[in-house]
Amino acid sequence: MRYEEYPFPYLSGDKVEILTKRDTLFPQMGIEKGKIVVDFGCGPGTFTIPIARAVGKEGIVYAIDKNEKYLSDLKEMAESEGLENIKIIMSQDEGEIPLPSNLADVFLLFDVLHHLDWRKIFSEVKRITKPDGKICVYPHHHLRRENLVEELGEYGLRLEKLLIGSVYVFQFDDEGKRR
After folding, report:
1. What band does 113 get if pLDDT is binned at 50, 70 and 90?
2. CB 108, CB 47: distance < 8 Å
3. Using CB atoms within 10 A of its CB, is residue 8 exposed (0-12), middle (13-18) or buried (19+)?
4. CA dihedral in degrees (34, 40, 42, 45; nearest 10)?
5. Rounded to whole angstroms, how far apart are CA atoms 155 and 82?
6. Rounded CA gap, 179 and 175, in Å?
7. Which pLDDT does position 63 carry in this prediction?
8. Which of 5, 68, 126, 147 has the highest CB neighbour number within 10 Å of its CB?
């Protein structure tokens, strides 16, 4: 099945806006040719496929999810699109992501914060993301969105910018503090 034919769940509002404006948004998020991106909680590839196209053959997208069906669908779509730069990883535990340290230029957490233990995930995000890397958060189901910047600041993240569609771009602060 091709990407354009897939019946993506929960695809409305902000997500549609992000996808339709990706040519201007992705570079602001650090997603460019040759970059390494981790899409944690990738689902069936709503953002994975467009990101893989954006980073090109020189880049890699690590698509991580715990849902076997979604990952199977993503693999099928990637193959039908001829995308060989997507590495699919099944992972049940946000506290032990099977990737090396200082790997990612960009770490995506799109519409997954409400499912995660923040202490565990942000410890792993810090380990996996390069020191100058970006952490992009789309908190669609996060109930306290107005407190998000303050809450994530407790994990050593500082807001770099807020983009349309409620995409928050963070970096770890200079001290790289952790909880």
Report:
1. confident
2. yes
3. middle
4. 0
5. 38
6. 12
7. 98
8. 126
pLDDT above 90 covers what percent of the chain?
A: 61
CATH code of residue 108: 3.40.50.150
- In whole angstroms, give the CA distance from residue 86 to residue 78: 7
Tokens (6 digits) for 102: 């200082």
- Domain holding 75, by residue range, is 18-25+34-172
Task: List 39's β-bridge partners, or say none.
Answer: 63, 108
Task: Report CA-CA distances (Å) from 106 to 3, 6, 11, 80, 134.
Answer: 22, 25, 22, 25, 5
**CB within 8 Å of 17: residues ≥ 6 apart:** 164, 165
* Pair 136, 110: CB distance under 8 Å: yes
Residue 139 CA to residue 8 CA, distance in Å, equals 18
Lowest mean per-residue pLDDT among 77-81, 104-108, 113-117, 157-161: 113-117
2: in domain: no
Determine, yes or no, domain membership for 13. Answer: no
Provide the edge-to-edge strand list for the sheet that holds 157-163.
Answer: 86-90, 60-65, 36-40, 104-110, 129-138, 167-172, 157-163
Spell out where the chain has E strands: 36-40, 60-65, 86-90, 104-110, 129-138, 157-163, 167-172
